[in-house]
Design brief:
Pathway: Lipid metabolism; butanoate metabolism. Keywords: NAD, Oxidoreductase. With 280 residues, the protein is of the alpha/beta class. The protein has 2 domains: 179 residues, 3-Layer(aba) Sandwich (Rossmann fold), CATH 3.40.50; 86 residues, Orthogonal Bundle (N-(1-d-carboxylethyl)-l-norvaline Dehydrogenase, domain 2), CATH 1.10.1040.10. The protein is built from 12 helices and 8 strands. An 8-stranded mixed beta sheet has the order 3-2-1-4-5-6-7-8, with helices on both faces. It is globular, with a radius of gyration of 19 Å.
């Protein structure tokens, strides 16, 4: 594995691209939206500068990352030489399938195609390609450069070789991996969505303020971030899509809190819109 392409230059995509670049890979970051891609480039180079100045990365890592990071709107140019492609677009199955069908035609037969989904089925995605044995989910966490875990989710047809190679990539990224047999929500999203949804229900019921609910979980249960803060960071529209998928596949206990639906309808999407459960 030398060349990695990341598709989607949003919060997760640019974080994955940064982490791959400082770990010595040649990285193409692709997005069809030039404005989003330009913002990602600016954010990545700012993070590189700050990380180098604070001593988190060496001068070699800093210089090599700048030299081996490329930003490209044309998917064919970005992915044609990739050994591994990591898709990090919106949690919409039809969008992911469309991208994987294109990648299947563009990439060499040996290229591994991974999705950064937090809930969706790599089996379903892989079935739309000619290489289901080389399709897998790599679920990174936000912020990617700080979070230590990658969930590696094996689809029904994913080969042992594909799993082994992806775990090796995880090691090179200085991440820990856990192997998951595909089931809706995997490990972390199932737990996280339940906790977050209950926190939203408590806020809606007037049990406590957002600040006190988050404080209780941080200090009482030793969570590094409160569930409402975390939902704001992830994006309330993203959380709602995850909840709707889990509700559809796993049943009633994942029914999205009405307050979450109301906030998304109002455009209160969390940190990215300036207002969610908190003001930014």
């Amino acid at each position: 594995m030398k060349n990695i392409t990341v598709v989607g230059a949003g919060v997760m995509g640019k974080g994955i691209a940064y982490s791959c670049a400082v770990s010595g890979f040649e990285v193409y970051l692709n997005d069809i939206n030039e404005e989003i891609l330009e913002k990602a480039k600016k954010d990545i180079f700012t993070l590189l500068d700050n990380s180098f100045q604070k001593g988190f990365i060496s001068e070699d890592q800093y210089q090599n990352a700048k030299k081996h990071l490329f930003f490209e709107t044309d998917l064919e140019i970005a992915a044609k030489d990739a050994d591994l492609v990591i898709e990090a677009v919106l949690e919409k199955m039809e969008l992911k399938i469309d991208i994987f069908k294109k990648l299947d035609k563009i990439c060499a037969p040996g290229t591994i195609l991974a999705t950064n989904t937090s809930t969706m089925s790599p089996t379903e995605i892989g079935a739309q390609t000619s290489r289901p044995d080389k399709v897998i989910a790599m679920h990174f966490f936000n912020p990617v450069h700080k979070m230590k875990l990658i969930e590696v989710i094996r689809g029904m047809e994913t080969s042992d070789d594909t799993v082994s190679i992806v775990k090796e990539v995880g090691k090179k990224l200085k991440k820990e991996t856990v192997e998951v047999n595909e089931f809706p929500g995997f490990i972390t999203s199932r737990m996280n969505c339940l906790i977050g949804n209950e926190a939203m229900n408590m806020l809606m019921e007037g049990v406590a303020s957002a600040e006190d609910i988050d404080k209780a979980l941080k200090l009482g249960l030793n969570h590094p971030m409160g569930p409402l803060e975390l939902a704001d960071l992830v994006g309330l529209d993203t959380r709602l899509r995850n909840m709707e998928y889990l509700y559809k596949t796993l049943g009633e206990k994942y029914r999205p809190c009405p307050l979450l639906l109301k906030y998304v309808k109002a455009g209160r999407l969390g940190k990215k819109s300036g207002k969610g459960f908190y003001q930014y």
